[in-house]
Amino acid sequence: MAAFVCRTAFVPSVRTNFTPFHARPHPRFNWPAAKHVSFKLPTTKQSRLKCAASESDRVAEMSNFQKKTTELLSELLKAENPRAIAEKNVDFFTEEFFAMSSAFMEMARKEGNKDMVKRMGIVLKVAMDEKEKTLRPEIRLLNQLLQQLSELERMTTFQGFLHYLKSDGYFFELLRMMTKDVEMQMDSLQKSILLKQLENIKREAETISKTLEKAG
Questions:
Q1: How many domains is the chain built from?
Q2: pTM score, two decimals?
């Protein structure tokens, strides 16, 4: 399962399942376990009401988002030209959108609906292609590299982005951020594969960067 990086850092390959941004669940849905502390702040009726209102707002927000995602996916799946629909809704293609879409695709997969899985794969690839056009070059580079299984493929891709491989540039910062995000995930085969991918990309990028620096 590949990752899609959507930062201003999220792109899975169609050959695999879709995983949102940095191949990790969005923090809104997966808060780390809170540490217990030895004191408790006093609560008042007003603070409890604010907390309840805040929680209610979050639930309403997620409900509206799920409805919009479902409607947009349905529109993309029915469209004769899904790219035209994707172009009009590119701002809605966030990591949350791909996270929820990934969940829908996994449901279809578990139900044995191969046709739906295939169709969702196609329209989500279109959506991600359109989203990529709005991302900075370093993010597009990492997304492409994460989809490529061989070093030869990655080396060919690197050649079109040499300007962004400076050792102190954003690409290496992006790699560090994504690696840290993946390391925080629960142990799994997917995590191990993705960390190995990132390790290979970092090693290859550093080799090219050093060569470019020596060449002046």
A1: 1
A2: 0.62
